[in-house]
Amino acid sequence: MKYRIDLAVDSSQEWIDAVMGDFDEFLKDHADCERKASAMAMSFVAKYPDRLEIIPELIDTGIEELEHFKQVYEIMKERGIQLTHEMKQDVYVKQLIDGCRSGREDRFMDRLLLASLVETRGAERFRMVYEALDNPSLKKFYHDLWASEARHGEVFVRMALNYFDEERVYERLEEMKIHEGKILSSLPIKPALH
Q1: Count of domains for the chain
Q2: What confidence tens digit (pLDDT) does each residue in 30-50 have?
Q3: Pseudo-torsion of CA 7, 60, 89, 158, nearest 10°?
Q4: Where are the alpha helices (DSSP H) in 48-165?
Q5: Pick from 155, 135, 165, 136: nearest CA to 59
Q6: Residue 42 maps to a domain
Q7: Nearest to 95 by CA among 1, 182, 170
């Protein structure tokens, strides 16, 4: 059984160029994304308290994402960058959520698979950041994040397979991958994770 997602569309060279061109702005967005990722994991716990098989891993994921936020915050502090007052709406994630089905079970599956796609995209982009950086400590940080996000991408697929038929999960994942690729391709290039 395969847990790793192959994305339908690769991130562009233009994207990594934009990130490297304004790395401080990227760090602000990255910090916001880590806070949102932590909140997302915990929102599954709040919305689905009866899904006992996945709650411990969701809590661990939420804590790990919060630790990532703390690490990004420390980097920002060293560079004299303040956190943003307001977290901007993530158009990429909003459009992915808008594509989720309604109905408790369908939405539960779609939200798990959406989380997997977002984490997998994050892993792909952190790899690109890691490869583009010269600073050794930042390079190591983004290398470690790449591995962590790739693992999170697999975690959410595995969670879905606890509750749904394998064929159904992979068919829906295929549909959502194509949708995610279209969304990503339609967004303007900016120094942000999404």
Answers
A1: 1
A2: 999 999 999 999 999 999 999
A3: 30
A4: 55-78, 91-98, 104-132, 136-163
A5: 155
A6: yes
A7: 182
